[in-house]
């Protein structure tokens, strides 16, 4: 699928995605509400690009990443991956398309079986999805270990013998085993020492170039997203409030929430860090089970207007390639 405005191929297209988790209460355990973890989210990811998704803890970014990979049954919306609609696919059909789309998790320790050797962990997807012989599998595992910078001599060791950074390399090698096109990286460096975070990010960038990968990179770390992402989506309370090319977003954030988030990022040089323009948000993030009426940021927005408490702002393109959900950018409402 090509985007006529950019002439680039869209690999992943998400439209109207909702992921609600039911809340049951009372003696009869009735359905009394929903946690609206992801609430009507739309975006495209171009082939070969990295789309960063940023937001505070609990904003729905990880749920969004998992929903895009159909690790959940969607509440509503459409997800197209490489031209195939996977939104309502059954498990059998999903299993066939899984090789195309993979995930790298935050905590590699939690998803590496402690009783399996490194070679078995990396080779497991090959056993499940290919008919490679044992020798061919071993060669493929060695190639993958080379690709992620793991010494081949480690093949028979177990996860507990590795550092956090090495375990993340194992997770990445496993994700690459079936030659995926699209990888969701869910806070892949958050659990690592600061000293090795850059190594893992550089590895992800190198692998992207080598294998032509497309990433959805989820992180609460705005500096890291600035480093790796081509475009950035900002999430707040289950919705994308702004989506823009990286440079434009960091230079000229448009949504009041993006402005507040970026103003809180410390500058390396305290002399140039403009604390006077820092926006400190008051109050807590509302519960996703009971979001405010109108704009979901209206309870904390420093620029809130009357209309914000009544109408949910449309997520619309305000400049070529720049999307914002805010009444400040709806000319017909703010004119006059
Ligand atoms: Fe603030 Fe209103 Fe814009 Fe929401 S719509 S971000 S409350 S100005």
Describe, in plain words, how this protein is organized in 3D.
- The chain is an alpha/beta fold.
- It has one domain: 3-Layer(aba) Sandwich (Rossmann fold), CATH 3.40.50.300.
- The protein is built from eleven helices and 13 strands.
- Strands 7-8-9-4-10-11-13-12 form an eight-stranded mixed sheet, sandwiched between helices. Strands 1, 2, 3, 5 and 6 form a five-stranded antiparallel sheet that branches.
- A hairpin with a 2-residue loop joins strand 10 and strand 11.
- Helix 5 crosses helix 6 and helix 6 packs parallel to helix 7.
- The longest helix is centred in the middle third of the chain and has 18 residues.
- The chain is globular.
- The two termini are 41 Å apart.
- The mean pLDDT is 92.
- The site of iron/sulfur cluster (SF4) has 14 residues, from loops.
State the main characteristics:
single chain; 336 residues; alpha/beta; Rossmann fold; eight-stranded mixed beta sheet; five-stranded antiparallel beta sheet; 13 strands; binds iron/sulfur cluster
